[in-house]
Amino acid sequence: MTLEETADRIRSMEIRGAGRIARAAAKALLDHSQSGTYQDLKSYRERMMVASEMLAGVRPTAVSLPNAVNLISKPLSLVKTLHEAKSGLEERAEAFITHSEQAVAKIGEIGARHIRDGDVVMTHCNSEAALQCILTAHQQGMDIEVYATEVRPRNQGHITIKTLSDAGIKTNFIVDSAARYFMKEVDLCITGADAITVNGAVINKIGTSQIALAAKEARVNFLVAAETYKFAPRTILGERILIEERPADEVLAAAVRATLPNVTVRNPTFDVTPAEYVDLIITEHGEIPPGMAYIIIKEHLQWDMDNLCIDYPYCEEE
Ligand code: RI2
């Protein structure tokens, strides 16, 4: 698959889920690097810088995407030879993919410890990190029942219920607006995250904050399963996470909209759950209260207050 094809598939959500997007970007950079012929370090850097910038902006909210691109491409500014640049980038891309897969497995192990035999778990959207917690607990012999939401308008809940059903887990499929109705039957909520800010707010699929609110009201624990590359470094500088708003067609067909001249369709893809509604964030390095998000950014995303080039997928040469 070419870089442009990967970008298109991420844009159209054929490749989706914050972790999968990040891994697809890493693979695209790896392939892009391997597929070119280069005269010198400068031409290699330029080609990879253009690719990095393009990929990093394909979906605006999932910070896993620019974080992955940064981790892979940023050190290009520090190397002195073409060989060093190319082999280093390809090693980092492969390492990112491996780390990401291992992180999901580790999160599953940690998250499963919160699930007791007989528990009823609610999840929203299709998060491989959140699902891994449920699947791991199930593999450990826990008898679990799940409430999974539909997730309008893109119906990611259908992917979730297929995974759960295939694993042999008893699953209730509910419309998004039924989450509060069923919360009284739920012991634990687990979702994923597309981005986590320095103050521990969780940006995830639209509707997540309503579920967290209902969980808080019902005194049900609300856990977030998220690899460290879902934390957003630039929120340390006061930058806000941009919430992607997708096309109206996803919600209401153009022909119907044409009959409703006074109606505007709004289609935000994500919402923000404040830290006070989140009991724990489970990362591959252990679980943290949301208030400790700064530590994750500082220790695991190579953030450095003096290094303001973190926002670019690469650093300019001196
Ligand atoms: P994992 C998804 O976004 C969902 O919001 C999901 O909770 C989140 O990414 C994290 O998913 P979308 O791509 O990385 O469906 O845990 O818009 O798989």
Shape: globular
How far from one another are the termini? Answer: 34 Å
Query: Count of helical segments?
Result: 11
Approximate helicity band: 40-55%
What is the N-to-C succession of helices and strands? HHHHHEHEHEHEEEHEHEEEH
Number of strands: 10
Q: What fraction of residues sit in β-strands? A: 5-15%
Compute the gyration radius: what is it? 20 Å
Assembly state of the chains shown: single chain
Largest sheet: 7 strands, mixed
The secondary structure category is alpha/beta
Low-confidence region ranges: 305-318
Task: Report on this structure.
The chain is of the alpha/beta class. The chain has 11 helices and 10 strands. The strands form 2 sheets. Strands 3-2-1-4-7-9-10 form a 7-stranded mixed β-sheet, with helices on both faces. Helix 2 runs antiparallel to helix 3, helix 3 packs antiparallel against helix 4 (64-73) and helix 5 (82-112) packs across helix 6 (128-139). The chain is globular and about 65 Å long. The model is unreliable at 305-318 (pLDDT under 50).
